[in-house]
């Protein structure tokens, strides 16, 4: 019997994979230094598959790549920025679909393709905490996909201000992410989520970024919008639920499993044993996670 195949589509553009303190006082140095989590993610080529999978899962859940009303602008020619673009999957797809638009992705980790990409797509190796390397009022659409908790509250304030600064008047700024604490989880899965939170909390990073971002964005625009979808994890959620279970397993075992195991002082074999119990819990209970989108017009 062969290995189980992932149900996620393969992305053909990336043919070459490349490796590459809780102080809340705002100073030039502390703001520009991103907290270093125990698990440095994303940081290496083995995380690229997870990032690709994340993109296709999110698109499947929403049945779209974005919620902002920018379709006409993209067809006619617009400037788009993806902050923390990761492997660049989002932009690779959009740049092929909307050939008259110009797309830019930035990330401090070089996981995006250097050569094999459309001519209307550019990637820049940069850290947003040092300020976005663009002039004011430059982009028609600014996008941020929050894959994991990353910033302190003060840093989030700076990040949101930067997203708005580089957007044109009338442009849209959109943020999205998963909220593990907004769904319904059983005790076994909750233990993994709590350990995940502890990994980042040791660096002053909280799990409540969704509500802080919501507060920041709603204070910046009278044209504020948000949406959320709750998905059942596992077979109880149908096809999407099975995909979400696969994706969640990849994150908690393959991506940050070693960090959680070290935190619990257990081996990876013991962690995988505990995760099997979580999978049983998914099938026996109505476990759910929530995904959200927030978008404003400048």
UniProtKB/TrEMBL annotation:
Keywords recorded for this protein, A-Z: Methyltransferase, Transferase
Signal peptide positions on this chain: none
Disordered: annotated span: 19-38
CDD domains assigned to the protein according to its UniProt record, in alphabetical order: AdoMet_MTases
Gene Ontology molecular function terms on file: methyltransferase activity
Gene3D superfamilies with a match to the protein in the record: Vaccinia Virus protein VP39
One of the protein's GO biological processes: methylation
InterPro entries in alphabetical order: Methyltransf_25 (IPR041698), SAM-dependent_MTases_sf (IPR029063)
Compositionally skewed regions (Polar residues) per UniProt: 23-33
Lineage top rank: taxon: Eukaryota
Protein's name in the database: S-adenosyl-L-methionine-dependent methyltransferase
Biological source species: Rhizophagus clarus
């Amino acid at each position: 019997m062969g290995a189980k195949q992932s149900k996620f589509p393969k992305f053909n553009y990336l043919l070459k994979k490349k490796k590459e303190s809780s102080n809340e006082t705002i100073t030039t140095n502390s703001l520009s230094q991103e907290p270093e989590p125990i698990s440095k993610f994303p940081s290496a080529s083995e995380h690229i598959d997870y990032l690709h999978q994340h993109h296709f899962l999110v698109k499947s859940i929403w049945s779209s790549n974005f919620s902002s009303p920018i379709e006409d602008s993209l067809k006619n020619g617009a400037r788009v920025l993806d902050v923390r673009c990761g492997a660049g999957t989002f932009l690779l797809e959009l740049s092929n679909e909307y050939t008259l638009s110009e797309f830019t992705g930035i990330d401090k980790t070089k996981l995006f393709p250097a050569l094999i990409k459309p001519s209307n797509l550019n990637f820049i190796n940069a850290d947003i905490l040092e300020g976005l390397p663009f002039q004011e009022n430059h982009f028609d659409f600014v996008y941020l996909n929050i894959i994991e908790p990353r910033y302190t509250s003060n840093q989030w304030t700076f990040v949101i201000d930067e997203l708005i600064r580089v957007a044109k008047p009338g442009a849209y700024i959109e943020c999205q992410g998963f909220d593990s604490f907004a769904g319904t989880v059983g005790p076994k899965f909750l233990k993994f989520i709590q350990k995940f939170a502890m990994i980042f909390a040791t660096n002053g990073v909280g799990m409540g970024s969704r509500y802080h971002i919501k507060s920041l964005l709603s204070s910046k625009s009278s044209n504020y919008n948000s949406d959320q979808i709750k998905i059942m994890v596992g077979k109880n959620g149908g096809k999407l639920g099975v995909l979400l279970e696969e994706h969640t397993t990849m994150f908690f075992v393959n991506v940050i499993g070693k960090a959680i195991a070290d935190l619990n002082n257990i081996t990876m074999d013991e962690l995988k044993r505990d995760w099997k119990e979580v999978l049983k819990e998914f099938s026996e209970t109505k476990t759910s996670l929530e995904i959200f989108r927030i978008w404003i017009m400048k």
